[in-house]
Design brief:
single chain, 232 residues, alpha+beta, 8 strands, globular, DNA repair, Endonuclease V, endonuclease
Length: 232
């Protein structure tokens, strides 16, 4: 996810308390489990903020394991919630869900550009969306949000664990997706486990740093932004 981080005063403490409580309640609903069966369709999801007040969310659906593109949709809307560090999912989720509703081909699992449980309160955007949609989800992020890890080997396919610095809990895997490039941070969201998230990420690599579902979601986001600008 491409986050817009506007400057400004600190967030309203009452809002932070409310959002924290909501995340804690949602966290109780998260389930870590393998997929019931091998996916036929896998989706990639990405969001960006063309302006401080607008958001564009994209879904692509691919056949699995061939990764042939089946469908692509987007939704462009207004962002109502202010920026609050650690609670970006609340800014993104409403628009992402509207984009998901446009899909004619519903996926079996969603790969989200962002974090799953590798989040300070274990509720990154992938976990957040998984709970709201009741869909298997996992996150593939380009930067660490929380946790500690040892740098994986420089060759593609090397993996090290991402763990909670205090408890040692496994919250993700750090994956070298391409030789000599910065690693990815892969964590389960909802109705998915770490082994599945890692396996599907590796299965979707086609020579780029990003796996195809999120790479294509990012690619089409740029194309859809052009459509939006032309329409305005």
């Amino acid at each position: 996810m491409a986050y817009y981080r506007p400057p400004g005063p600190p967030p309203d403490p009452v809002l932070v308390q409310t959002l924290t409580q909501q995340q804690q309640e949602m966290r109780l609903r998260v389930r870590a489990e393998p997929l019931a069966q091998e996916p036929r369709l896998i989706a990639g999801c990405d969001s960006s903020f063309p302006t401080p007040d607008t958001i564009l969310s994209v879904f692509v659906v691919l056949k699995f394991p061939s990764l042939e593109l089946v469908e692509k949709v987007y939704n462009y809307g207004v962002v109502d919630m202010p920026y609050v560090p650690g609670f970006l999912s609340f800014r993104e989720a409403p628009n992402v869900i509207e984009a998901f509703a446009k899909l004619q081909n519903k996926p079996d699992v969603i790969m989200v550009d962002g974090h799953g449980i590798a989040h300070p309160r274990r509720m990154g955007i992938a976990a957040h969306l998984g709970v709201l949609l009741d869909m298997p989800t996992f996150g593939v992020a380009k930067q660490k949000l929380t946790g500690t890890f040892t740098e994986p080997g420089i060759e593609r396919g090397n993996i090290t664990p991402l763990t909670d610095a205090k408890t040692g809990e496994l919250i993700g895997n750090v994956i070298r997706s391409k030789d000599k490039v910065l690693p990815l941070f892969v964590s389960p969201g909802h109705r998915c486990d770490q082994a599945t998230a890692t396996r599907l990420t590796l299965a979707c690599l086609r020579g780029y740093k990003l796996p195809e579902p999120t790479r294509l979601a990012d690619h089409w986001a740029e194309q859809f932004k052009k459509e939006v600008r032309q329409a305005q």
